[in-house]
# Entry
Amino acid sequence: MNRVAIPLAVFGALLALPLIGLSSYTMHILVLVLMWTTIGMAWNLLGGYCGQVSFGHAAYFGVGAYTAGILYFKLQISAWWGIPLSVAVVSVFAFLLGYIVLKLRGPFFALATLASGEVLRITTENMGEFTNGTLGILIQQRTWIEKTWYYYIILAIAALTFVVIRKLVASKWGYYFVAIREDQDAAESLGIDTTRYKTIALVISAILTGICGAFYTNYMGYIDPHIVFALHDISIITIMIVMVGGVATEWGALIGAGIMVLLAEWIRAIPGLGASHQAFFGILLIAIIIFLPNGIVGDLPKITRLFRRARA
Amino acid sequence: MSLLQVQNAYKFFGGLAAVTDVSFEIEPGEILALIGPNGAGKTTVFNVVNGFYKPSKGRISFKGVDISGMKPHKICKMGMARTFQVVKPLQRMSVLDNVIASAYLRTDSKEKATAIAMETLKFTGLYEDRDVISKGLPLGKRKRLEIARALATQPELLLLDESFAGLNPTELDESIGIIRRIKERGITIMIIEHHMKVIMSISDRIVVINYGQKIAEGTPEEIRANPAVIEAYLGEEQHA
# Structure
């Protein structure tokens, strides 16, 4: 019952939220939260359920973003077509990268994914003809000035992602993903084609991330390699969102994204702090790992117990 | 025709010959025990048979098909399952989910996988523990979970790697009972074991390995009387 009621209630509340007349800035924050929630959920499928911790999801975000950008820049086609097209383009990239990186395990896998993001960034920077290099791509005419439609589009993407991942996790594939996370050798000896299922998890995770990238191009109206292939601002933040919210939990990405986006905004507003807001993220992450290793959603019983004790 | 044929199998790790020229066959329906002192290469033989290692030389065939160098998941799909000496439960999954994950090998439907898993858990006496997160199981039950998980893949040949080590006498008797019942189901078993009492009571034939080489093969009575075996293995144990 709750498994249906709670998501519907959350979805209903998010649908109704713009009706109360929020400021453009608040809407912007909400759009970012939903976008990061989607990326977080996508990463969680691969990193949380399948146990393959990727430090390179910026690769897929960036490829999605550039699919939309290049459509507009080179072919003068609406960048919105980038959303459906990114599914195909990102799948190809995920297959190719997956073929290389999924042969590695644990920290070696993490490092290889990290490198794959960086390789794509540098490639994009140097393919000036095709990508406009470090100058980036500017969408001259935004579709809407208002944020409301963007909000509803990303809400639809997020809701769809939520449903897709829930269905997947409950299926045979979901069992196989978790089995691979828990012990790859045991999984293999139980008849699970680990390479195949890791590739499936990676490709689905990459597609969902890439869709967000394509959305980002349309929403922000400007992309360059340093923004969309960023190691710290995309790859690492994605991991932090899931870690803070709760790895391998359904709601972790939403909670994590909410906290991280708001925190980033608040800290950025402190005058004279500049780029050192990154340090706060670092400290937060350390604190979370020490005190709430399963994230806020994962350690919810622990948190409620603490509060109850404080009240007593 | 034999179910499994190992023909002149070698496995080298760098310059170290872990398995040298080992050949044996398993007939359908029998229990074959693989024994030998610690470090003799028993688990390596298992790993070569189930596909974790590609044999450096030689040929492994299962049901008449050459499986040397085939991936473990394919070999498992063909009907060979194994347990691990160092138990590898899917730690953060419940006992039931562990078994469901392997039952999915023969079906795509969750209902069928759950039904197979439930049946397997009852068969191995783990039904009461089905909701326990497997990290929290005592060793004896973890060993049995390994067997349950392997059985849920509905194998024809089951490889058991020291499924009795570290069990107390009660658990030992339970596990012997389970092995006997598995055999009654027509599943062929190959077992690595140190417990002589277990080996002598359940196995039809025994293959003895020492320093990676096969030194003897025969019925439990023949092995018990074999001087090479006594010297290499049983003799040492008596001195200890």
